[in-house]
Amino acid sequence: MDQLRFDGRVAVVTGAGGGLGKAYALLLASRGAKVVVNDLGSARDGAGKSNAADAVVKEIKDKGGVAVADYNSVVEGEKLIKTAIDNFGRIDILINNAGILRDKSFTKMTEQDWDLIQAVHLKGAFKTTHAAWETFRKQKYGRIVMTSSNAGLFGNFGQANYSAAKLGLVGLANTLAIEGAKYNIKVNTIVPTAASRLTEDILPPEMYEAMKPELIAPVVAYMVHESFNDTGAIIDSTLGFATKAQLFRSNGAPLKKRPSDPVTIESVKENWSKVVDMRGAKHLEKIADVTLELVDKLQEFEERSKLDGDKDSYWTTY
Ligand code: NAI
């Protein structure tokens, strides 16, 4: 296969002073993209500032690539996008990767722990994306990646603030994928697991060694390539492996026997095992499918009621 390249493209990678973001920036630059290496240079908990981005820019330039450092916080996302426009005249790719942790059990979590995590992960991604959006729309081209986490998809002890922000990013991507569709703006989500300072005391040492960010970078790079046509996808990657994650809905069950019956707390309890029975569960592609499914079910409910009179078995197929 011909090499997939990014010549003429400008990418902003947030939090690219280390870890995953650095691997993304290096790979994109090695394939011809001009890269804004953004990093506030804070500690793992978000405190302080440093110029971590400089070393990454130097590494890119030493290898013949083109990059510029940006030290703004993603919370001021418009400044990062301005850096791209001021230096390279355009923006095509935005990888929202910056992140910090404030892990604590929920009892000990303060409002500040909550706000800080929402600000960097969720509001930061909103701000950068919002600042780039109009350009993407006008040029009818944009590639955006949000960074979620299995802590968001599944929950994880001590990460209530982080899980909420990380699943929030999936919601943001879902809607932007819809709003960006007619402008060739693809919005996807990566769920990485990699060795970095965020995970050095979480992952077992032998796993930490094997989980190089460089194994995930090609997945993310493909997801922001012009040939990438998926949108709204959640891609989980680690250890040189990638999978797609989706939400599934059970077939559900009516909460009453006849259309004229009331729904009561007891009838809900009575039908609960069918409501949560995931056999035959389906992934629905879009919100319109949710409505269509409901309308279909209601019609079937009405028809069965007419056919079966007063029988108790209208819903045996559910
Ligand atoms: P990392 O700590 O090496 O990289 C995150 C970078 O973001 C740091 O260089 C930090 O200075 C920068 N940053 C923090 N706040 C910022 C702000 N306000 N503005 C700009 N830059 C800021 O961590 P890692 O592991 O590379 O994480 C990258 C992303 O991947 C994060 O969003 C993280 O939540 C996510 N992630 C990582 C996982 C892993 O296994 N490493 C698992 C799931 C998600």
How is this structure best described in words?
- The chain is of the alpha/beta class and 318 residues long.
- It has 2 domains: 10-245, Rossmann fold, CATH 3.40.50; 247-318, Helix Hairpins, CATH 1.10.287.4290.
- It contains 10 helices and 8 strands.
- It has helices at 19-30, 52-62, 77-88, 111-139, 150-154, 160-180, 205-210, 217-223, 265-275, 287-308, and strands spanning 10-13, 34-38, 66-70, 93-96, 142-147, 185-192, 234-238, 241-245.
- Helix 3 (77-88) packs parallel to helix 4.
- The chain is globular and about 75 Å long.
- It binds 1,4-dihydronicotinamide adenine dinucleotide (NAI).
- Residues 14-15, 17-21, 38-42, 44, 46, 52, 73-75, 97-100, 120, 124, 147, 149, 192-194, 196-199 line the site of 1,4-dihydronicotinamide adenine dinucleotide.
Q: What's the mean pLDDT score?
A: 93
Instruction: State the separation between the terminal residues, measured CA to CA.
Output: 48 Å
Please trace the helix and strand order, writing H or E for each element: EHEHEHEHEHHEHHEEHH
Count of discrete alpha- or pi-helical segments spanning 4 or more residues = 10
User: What ligands does this structure carry?
Assistant: 1,4-dihydronicotinamide adenine dinucleotide
Could you estimate the helical fraction of the residues in percent? 40-55%
Structural class: alpha/beta
Side by side, the strands of the main sheet go 3-2-1-4-5-6-7-8
Which homologous superfamily in CATH is the superfamily of the largest domain? NAD(P)-binding Rossmann-like Domain
CATH class of the largest domain: Alpha Beta
